[in-house]
Every structure is written in structure tokens, then in C-alpha cells.
């Protein structure tokens, strides 16, 4: 043993440089370094074992604070290096740095390297076993970073009452590379598990542990050293990180382990008898490092920015407190057989001296008790005996493995002490067991909670199902009720219908009778109409005939007149007596003629009127027929509707029937169940034999009862069916009859109206007939008068001719004569004739023109229509053309776009060819060797080659 057993914790303080954002913000650089071991923050000095400024290199840091520990560990001591400080104060930078950069690497990689270097330089008789573990503590849960499945490890104590993490992966390593690989693996596991690494690392503690065991193969001396390298969580206050809610809870938990660390350090600094190691898992693991058998170095990391002043100060205060802690270190030696033997001998010698002391003392005591006074030189020499024992003790103590814990302040005898220790260890054991149990129980509780949630979900879903089913059932029941109601209503309605039907059939009979009478009447009327029609036809013919005759007569009369006129005009014969007579006769004749003309006109008019009325009546008849057809169509539609309704009714009936059957079956089941229950009850009460008998009897009874019931029901149902069928038939019949009746009524109405129309027409016709009769008579009279006139005219002509002849004779005889009045007459007649001729010409011309125009009209109309159609067609064609044009334009646009796109893509591709630097490589795609950069692929391949050789890295 070289070092003194007692040593304080070494505290180093390191300030990082101002970072980029602090510089940008213009933060002040506050620490003032006043010597190697002192720094002052705004006037307040802080003393440490060493203080490092911002420009300290990683190597300097390592050499000053950690290098010595490597030797200690390999000499069989325990060691710990902490990094403490607020987030981003440089803890990770100090502990790890950039792991694979020779200049930037922090304490851990340098220690690893050094351990192996040291080993290589040592005695070849020494054999080393090195194993490493890596875990983190987050929310007071220990997670193994080398095996992610172990996420809640517990802390136990070994037989020497040194705490360790139970079940944590320990990896044997034989080279620095293997250690670094292990660290890399742990770090990558940590990264995989969390989303925000910065946040996570600021809230969790990471602990890297190296165990070194050595055995001297020559002396069989065994030594062991344990090294903890701890990167603590950020020490900042909760307020500053702005944590809220769940995060706040988490921060409190983190602070729990950090505050436990603070409490432990405070208790140790104050020399308190009770140190609360057990308050957190971290303090338990580091129990030996704090006030125990360990050389501990704490690196206090701090920010130099004025912005973090308060935090920096509290960090430095913490470090100062830790500086006062004293650890008691001892070698971790396993004794060889030889050493054990020596120790045994020594203990034996000690025992004999103690025993002789005891006998000495007993003797002395007896002498005192017996009233003797023992002289001073014969009394027990305490000093001498103590010195003797001390001499022996020193030898033993130097080889003691662990210092025995003592409870200060209380004096105990050895036996009590032993008992107490045994008790204490038992209690601690129990405590560990309880810890384990708690762990298990909490896991179980979580599992059960999950199960409970599942069950609750299941329950909720089944409850929902149940509710749904209940709703469905209710709906079905209500439907059943409704259908029952409906059936009742239908039956009632049917009864009413039957009664109605009787009434209606009676009515129908009456109506048919009426109808027959009416049709007979109609027949009569129509026959009358036919006869009247034929009469009318005859009359028309007659009128036409008469018209013709009259016109003929008129034309012959006019011809005669013309002849007479010519005769009168051509002859220059004068006749005084005759001329006055003829004049008179002429005027009379003209009067007659005009009269006749007017009468003829009225006749023509009347006949026209008659024709138009006939056309009207024909039109009306057509309209009536059309109406009749429409009515028939409607009737047929109604019939179809009735049919569909009856079908629907039948469907409803069937449904009802099914539902009734269902109800029956349910009832039956109910009865069955109740009887079963009864039987069961009976079975319970009575003997089984009688119960079965009773059951059989009851079942038999039920069977027979059921059969009878069913039969009855089926017969009733059949009856009901037949009745319903009858009712529906009757209903149909009734419907038909009602319809028929309606139709008949309508027809009757129509016939009546036609009858009225016909009678009206008849009346008109009779009136017309009367008039015609009148006209005929008038005509007859006229004819007679005309005949008479003609006769007289004839006579007159004869007379005139005779007169003329005599006059001609006379004139021939006398030769000298006068012409006087006849010339004026002639002139008048010719003038009239001319006029007449002109008028007739004009009239004819007009009539012709009119006819032409009428002919032209439909043609023009047709042309107009054609033009309109043409215009329409042209319009539609124009529209189509427009649409087509729009579509073409769109297509054209699309095509242009596409071409543009293609051209652009081509351009891009061409540009890409010339300026391409890196080809994007997607996951799952092997990088393709490009002709310009063939190295890309090859270097990629090389990277896949394993660079480190994993030796006997067997895991435990
Ligand atoms: P912590 O682990 O305490 O949260 P980090 O070690 O991650 O903080 O440090 C935060 C940042 O500051 C990192 O980018 C780190 O590189 C830088 N840094 C810390 N200490 C130093 C230093 N001494 N020199 C240079 N940069 C440092
Ligand atoms: Mg960190």
C-alpha cells in the first residue's frame, strides 16, 4: 500500500469557450482565472484542485485530471470520474469528445487507450481480464445500452456489500478497438431509442464501467479495480429549460437523482452519520465513489457566458462542497493460500495474547473481590497490552479487504457489533430483495393495467353490442305490434268493404238498368239522327239542283235579253206605241231579276251555314271520342294500380303470418323453458324417479296440448286465409264494378250531352227545314212569277217581233221614218252592258288573283318553314363547329404543353450531364459506378469491410 488510505475527492473545473450563439448575442465572458487552482466569477473566488480555461486542449485536460487514475485502477483501486454541469456546458465534450479523432477525443477513449498501453508495458506474469458495461439512468430506471431489452435493471450488493447493477451486460474486451466498438454500439442503441437526442442526453445519466482483474500467474496474487466514467444529466434548474407538465414531472425526477447526489455530497461534506445513498439508483451505484473505497475525480463543467452566471455559480458551489469529501481507499486484493495461512497464524497469536490478558485480569479481579489490594506493579498494564494487540492488528488491517463499517457515536461490544452487522446485512439483503420484488410487482401491475384496459375495451364493445341487439329487438317487437295493428285494421276495412260491396252491387244493378234504358234511347235518337241526316242530304241535293236550274234559267234569260238587246240595237225601227210598253216590262223584269238574285244569295248563304254547323257537329263528335279513349286509358291505369296494391297486401299478409309463427314458436319455447324449470325444481325437491315421471307426463301433456293448439291454429289460419282471399276477390270485384259504374256514368253523361247536342241540332235542322220549305215555296212562287214573266216576255217578244215585222213592212212601204227614243235606249243598254262586262271582268280578275294568292300562300308558308329550319340547322352546325374549334384548341394547347415539357426535360437532362456532381443514392439501392467517378462505388465497398478484428469478444 503506497498511497495514504484517506484521500479527498479531486475536483477539476473546466470552462468551455463562448459558443456561436453566445458570441452572436454579445454575451460577456465572465470567469477570471487567478492562478492554476482559482477562478472568480463577478468577484467571488472559487478554489479547486485545478481550473482549466477555455483554451485547454483535450489532451491537457486528460493528462491533468484522468491519467493518474489508469495506474490506480491497474494497481487494484477503484476509480470514478464524474462530469457535472448544466446542459451544453461541455460534459460530453470532456468525457467523450469526438470519439475517433485523435485530437478531439475526450477522457474515455484516452483512458481506454492508456489502459491497454499500460498493460502492454507490464510484467508478463500478469494476466488481465477486462470487461466493460455501458448503461444509462433515465427517470430512475437503469437501461442497458448494450442490450436494449434490459430496460429496468436493479441495484444489488455483493458479498462485500458493494453495490452493483444486477444482470447488466458485461462484455469482455481484449483491445482498445473492441472497447470503442462497444461504446459505438451503446451510443447507437441510445440514439435509436429516442427522437431528440440532445433533449434526452440532457435528462439522462450515462455510465461507462470498466472492470480490470489481474492475476499474477507466478504468485497467484489477484487484484481488481473498477472504473466508473459518468456523464451526468444537465444540472440546470427546472425553470430555465422552460419545462412544463409532463416534462416538468420528468425534470423533477431527473432532479431527484441529481438532488440525491447533492444530498449525498452534502451529508458527506458535513460528516453526517447517515448518508442517503439509497435515495436514488445513481447514488447507490456510485456509493463507493462518494465517501467509499474509491479515488474520485469530479470535472465541473461551466459556461463562461454572463447569461449563465447564476447556473455557473451554483455549479461551482456544488464542486466546492464535493471537494471536502474524504474517501477511504484500500486495495482490492484476493489473498493467496499462503497469505491466508500467515493471517491465520497472526490471528492465533493475537488470540493467545488476548487470552493471557483475560486470565491476568480475572486473577486481578478475584484478588480485588477478596478484599486484597493489588499493588500497582502487579496490576494489568493496559498500555502494554494495547500496544501488543495493536501491533498484531496493524498486520491484519493492512491486509483487510474492506473496512468494516462502524456506527460512530455508539460503543458496542464485539459480539453486539457482529450481531448488528449480521442484522444490517440481512436487512440490506431484504431491502434488495424488496427492490427486486417492487420491480417485478410494478411490471406486473403495468401488465395487469394493460390487461384491464383490454378487458374494459372488450366489455365496452360487448355492452355496445348488447345495446345494439336490445334496440334491434325493440324495433322488431314494435314492428310486430304495428303489423298486428295493421292486420286488425285491414280486417275491419274488409268488413266495411263487404258491406259497401253489397250496397254498390245494388247500385250497379240500378245503374245498369238505367244504362240500358239510356242506350235504347240513344239508339232511337241515333236512328232519328240518321234519318234526319239522309233527309238533309236529300234537301241539299235538291237545293243544289234548284240552284243549278235557277242559274241555268238566269243565264238563258240573260241570253235572251242580250239577244233582244242586239235585236233592238241593230234595228233602226221605230215604234212609238210598243216602246213604252217594253220599257215598263224591262224595268219590271230587272226588278224581278234583282229580287231573284238576292234570294238566291240568301239561299246560298243558308246552305253554307248549314254546312258549317254540320262540320262543327262532326268536330265535336271527334272530341268526344277522344275523351272516351282517354277515360279508358285512365281506367286501365287504375286497374293496374289496384293489382299492384293487392299484391302488396298479400305480401303484408305473408309477413304477418311469419311474424305470428315466430311469436308462436317463442311462446312455445317459453312454455318449454318454464316447464323445464318446474321439472328441475321438482327434481331438486323430490326424488329423481318421480321427477322424471312427472316430467314425462308433463311433456306428454304439453306435446298433446301443443299438437292440438297447432292444429287449431293452422285450421284457423287456413280459414283466415280463405276469408282474406274471398275478401280480396270481393274487393277486386267491387273495385271493378265501381270503375265500371263510373265509366258508365261518364258515358251516360257523354251520351246525354251528345243527345242534347243532337236534339239541339235537330231543332236547328227543323228550323232550317222550315226555312227551306219557306224558301222552296218562295222559290216556287218566284219560279211561277218568273215563268209568268217569261211568258209575258215571250208574248212581248212575239208582239215585239210582230210589231217589228209590221214596222219593217211599213217602213219598207213608207221608207221615210224616225228612230228617236230607240237610239237613247240602245246607248243606255250598251253602256250598262259595258259596265256589267267590265265589272264581271274585274270581279273575275279579282277572284283569280285571290285564288292565285291562296295557292301561293301555302307555298310561301312552306318556304318560310323551310327557311326557318335551314336557319336552325345552320345555327346548330355553327355551335358544333364552335365546340369542335374549342376542343381542337384545347388539344392543341395540351400538345404544345407536352412538347414544351419534353423539350425542357431534354434540356435539363443535357445540362445535368455536363454539371452533375453527385448522384443521389437512395436507401436500398447499391451505388452505381459512374464512369467519371468510379471511386464512389469502390470506396463504398471498402467501407463495408470490417476494419476491426473482433477477437475473443465473448459476451457473458
Ligand atoms: P453537455 O454534454 O454538457 O450538454 P456538450 O459536451 O454537448 O455539453 O457541449 C456542447 C457544445 O459545446 C458542443 O458542441 C461541444 O463541442 C462544445 N464544447 C463544449 N466544451 C468545449 C470546449 N472545451 N471546447 C470547445 N467546444 C466545446
Ligand atoms: Mg451531454
TrEMBL record:
Location of the region described as Disordered in the Swiss-Prot/TrEMBL record: 906-956
Coiled-coil regions listed in the entry: 382-525, 607-902
Gene Ontology CC: one annotated term: protein-containing complex
Residues of the Kinesin motor domain: 8-325
Key words of the record: ATP-binding, Coiled coil, Cytoplasm, Cytoskeleton, Microtubule, Motor protein, Nucleotide-binding
SMART domains noted in UniProt: KISc
Keyword set includes Lipid biosynthesis: no
Biased composition regions of type Polar residues, renumbered to the chain: 932-947
PANTHER family assigned to the protein according to its UniProt record, in alphabetical order: CENTROMERE PROTEIN E, KINESIN-LIKE PROTEIN
Protein name: Kinesin-like protein
Source organism per UniProt: Salvelinus namaycush
